[in-house]
Amino acid sequence: MSGKKTKRKTLGLSTRIFIALLAGAAGGVLIHYYMPGGYIRDKVIVNGLLYVLGNGFIRLMQMLVVPLVFCSLVCGSMAIGDTKTLGRVGIKTIIFYLCTTAMAISLALGVASLISPGVGMSIAAAEETPVAAASSINFADTLLNMIPKNIFGSLASGDMLPIIVFAVFSGIMLAKLGNKASTVSNFFSQFNDIMMEMTMAIMKAAPIGVFCLIAKTFAGIGFDAFVPMLKYMASVIVALAVQCFVVYQLLLFGFTRLNPFKFVKKFFPVMAFAFSTSTSNATIPLSIDTLHKKMGVAKQISSFTIPLGATVNMDGTSIMQGVAVIFIAQAYGIALTPSAILTVILTATIASIGTAGVPSVGLVTLSMVLSSVGLPTEGIALIMGIDRILDMLRTSVNVTGDAVCTTVVAKQQGMLDKAVFDADDVKASE
């Protein structure tokens, strides 16, 4: 035989995380039902090995939150700052994206509240502080606290809302200064790349972390966790479907009077491509081309709004975070006050600017959203294994939202050829 070695097909990270989820659930159930209680099970295995490895992984994710979100928001805001070159187009685009994100998170909270996915899990929180934090949040104070008194103090303590405000403000100023601040702009761009690489490196340990966290959870509650997790998946899928096929299409028809069914039919291949790749960035060229050839959108519009949407418009991620907040709160038996719900909407909407670059980075920023209302970040482990499945659907929703916004803005600016939009696919593609 030749010296060439045949390449063995390795399992992808999402597959390994899902296998770890199933293995952890099975292992936890076996420990719960078949291993007698005592020092070995309770102290060495469950609250020793599984606890240390599982929470060690959570700590690694939490380690990234402040620098990752800060750098991502600065870079995203620099892109937003460039909208002055397109004037009203840029302003309309950003407002549309932020409004649909706020609608998405609100929809997710509503759907999750109706389905109640976390009811029945009854996971005991490790301490009582989350309950106090969730019940003592004042929304007026939250708004004031978004303005940092000392940004270095906020960075050191991980106080995310003032960090978000300062990062966005910094990014806009960097964009305004342009070449005068190119050194600082390049620093943030390069440091953002480093944080993305670090995220991917830590995510390689996700199967071990998920296995330990899920095994510890199921070791304590047995089969009681299966039905709530299925209800969590159903909640996310229902919210995504409503956002994609109801909310977006109503907005499209309301602003443009274009046929939503024709839009979905023509854009569906892009949605399918986004589903298969699970990344918004990979769909940018296909989205621009499809919007131009099949919808009649001028490329001057789509070449700006689509890449910007891939950076700041993460409605699918916001839906996941909204459902996850309700799921984790119910699983730990923590009641969320109306002011806490408003805090979630505000935090997730603003944080969506910084969740664009890397698959599963939404889970990192989810820990920030949970912390903003005093919920245990350990609850992320409950959804981590199945998140990659839902991530494929979320990506389809994200790119559809970008396309709807682009079509609306192009129509209002008189840069959409309605004859191309109304033509069937055969004629449009010729």
Word description of this protein:
Helix content is 77%, strand content 0%. It is mainly alpha-helical and 430 residues long. The chain is globular. The termini are far apart. The C terminus is likely disordered.
Strand content: under 5%
Beta-strand segment tally: 0
The percentage helix is over 70%
| Distance between the first and last residues' Cα | 50 Å
- What is the overall shape? globular
Instruction: Tell me, rounded to a whole number, the average pLDDT.
Output: 80
Order of helices and strands: HHHHHHHHHHHHHHHHHHH
Using only C-alpha atoms, the radius of gyration works out to 23 Å
Unreliable sequence segments: 125-137, 426-430
Structural class: mainly alpha
Characterize the largest beta sheet: strand count, sense, and whether it forms a barrel: none
Number of helices: 19
Key terms for this structure?
mainly alpha; 430 residues; 19 helices
Q: What is this entry, summarized?
A:
The chain is mainly alpha-helical and 430 residues long. It has 19 helices and no strands.
What's the topology here?
Blueprint: H1 13-34, H2 39-81, H3 88-115, H4 129-136, H5 139-145, H6 151-157, H7 160-177, H8 182-203, H9 206-221, H10 226-256, H11 260-277, H12 284-293, H13 299-312, H14 315-331, H15 338-351, H16 361-372, H17 380-412, H18 418-422, H19 425-429
Helix pairs in contact: 1-9, 1-17, 2-7, 2-8, 2-9, 2-16, 3-10, 3-13, 3-14, 3-15, 3-17, 9-17, 10-11, 10-14, 10-17, 11-17, 12-13, 13-17, 14-15, 14-16, 14-17, 15-16
